[in-house]
Specification:
The protein is mostly helical and 340 residues long. The chain has two domains: 220 residues, HUPs (Rossmann fold, 3-Layer(aba) Sandwich); 92 residues, Tyrosyl-Transfer RNA Synthetase (Orthogonal Bundle), CATH 1.10.240.10. 55% of the residues lie in helices and 6% in strands. A three-stranded parallel sheet has the order 1-2-3. Strand 1, helix 1 and strand 2 form a beta-alpha-beta unit. The longest helix is centred in the last third of the chain and has 30 residues. The relative contact order is 0.15. It binds tryptophanyl-5'AMP. Tryptophanyl-5'AMP binds next to strand 1, helix 1 and helix 7. It comes from Methylocapsa palsarum. Pfam families: tRNA-synt_1b. One of its GO terms (biological process) is tryptophanyl-tRNA aminoacylation.
Length: 340
């Protein structure tokens, strides 16, 4: 049976990239799949976090899911550290994955920077925990932005190696020829990689020091308008064909954002705005972004302060997630030969 899993880090500044690259898809997939959406606090502490800010970010991401249309009753919304099976399976995967595999992870290299000796071991082992998140539910589909592609490939490699290494036990215990499915990344559409508003060569990110580089889900209409107006562009008018966006990363990014927000193709957008200058297009983009994001931001702020409700959602989600995770982890322990 098909099952969707995805996660978002509670590290502040949820932005348009997180929304269009991931959360919008979470909402769509609810129509066709059983979905599990996780606030990944164990991932967040791979770099230093202030405890009070972490707590508030966990609630904020939960509020963002719900405000965007994720349904915590029909599906499962929870916080990673409340289901200890994630960390347990991650340890087992630390022993399945190879150092050489992790050495190739580009995100570790970027995040660790020059002072790699001083990065946490958790930051290095991060992809094994991510594989555990997905596979502890034996999830088959994972909606993410383009930047998570390499981590998803690693999760598939881990699943495959586990299935091969323990193939005989897996078959003998009645699980057929594979215990873990190879999870499929769902990375699609014009917003799989939303770029910074200040630099079309950098992705929009929570950690960019300039707040003008991103539109946050919590931004109000005035701030959204300012940020879009200040967004970097080039002096040419917009093209009428998608090919005309090549080598114009800022134009391509804004057109991509417009099309994703409006559920149109880039060509549809260019049919309307091609040949015109950026100022008319930007005004339309402000109106569209405010119309789509304004209500979500407002609902998010309201929900976030209702900590009783949010914490109840997370507790209920964790207890339902745990039922699935516990059963799968027990099977893994039997496969490995642990005594239970
Ligand atoms: P995180 O918290 O950095 O981002 C959450 C989701 O947002 C997507 N995203 C983007 N999409 C398009 N354009 C952008 N500029 C952009 N920036 C972020 C991310 O791809 C992601 O889908 N490692 C993950 C969290 C994680 C996870 C998992 C995801 C932990 N375990 C298991 C899936 C399955 C992360 O750091 O995402």
């Amino acid at each position: 049976k098909e099952r969707v899993f995805s996660g978002v880090q509670p590290t502040g500044n949820l932005h348009l990239g997180n929304y269009l690259g991931a959360i919008v898809k979470f909402v769509e997939l609810q129509k066709t799949h059983d979905c599990i959406y996780c606030v990944v606090d164990l991932h967040a502490i791979t770099v230093p976090q202030k405890p009070e800010e972490l707590k508030s970010s966990i609630r904020e991401v939960t509020a963002a899911f719900i405000a965007s249309g994720v349904d915590p009753k029909q599906h499962i919304v929870f916080n990673q550290s409340q289901v200890c099976e994630h960390a347990e399976l991650a340890w087992i995967f630390n022993c399945v994955a190879r150092i050489g595999w992790l050495n190739r992870m580009t995100q570790f290299k970027e995040k660790a920077g020059k002072d790699r000796e001083n990065a946490s071991v958790g930051l290095y082992a991060y992809p094994c925990l991510m594989a555990a998140d997905i596979l502890v539910y034996r999830a088959t589909h994972v909606p993410v932005g383009e930047d998570q592609k390499q981590h998803l490939e690693l999760a598939r490699d881990i699943a495959q190696k586990f299935n091969l290494d323990f193939g005989e036990r897996i078959a003998a215990l009645g699980h057929g020829d594979a215990f873990f499915p190879l999870p499929e990344p769902l990375i699609q559409g014009p917003a799989a990689r939303v770029m910074s508003l200040r630099d079309g060569a950098k992705k929009m990110s929570k950690s960019d020091p300039s707040d003008y580089s991103r539109i946050n889900l919590a931004d109000d209409a005035d701030i959204i308008a300012q940020k879009v107006r200040k967004a970097k562009t080039d002096p040419e008018p917009l093209p009428s064909e998608v090919e005309g966006l090549a080598k114009r990363p800022e134009a391509e990014n804004l057109v991509g954002i417009f099309s994703a927000l409006n559920g149109q193709t880039k060509l549809d957008v260019l049919r309307q705005f091609g040949g015109g200058n950026f100022s008319a297009f930007k005004s339309a983009l402000v109106d569209l972004a405010v119309a789509k994001l304004g209500p979500i931001g407002a609902e998010m702020k309201r929900l976030k302060d209702d900590t009783d409700y949010i914490d109840k959602v997370l507790l209920d989600g964790a207890s339902r997630a745990k039922v699935i995770a516990r059963e799968n982890l027990a099977a893994v322990k039997d496969i490995l030969g642990f005594v239970r």
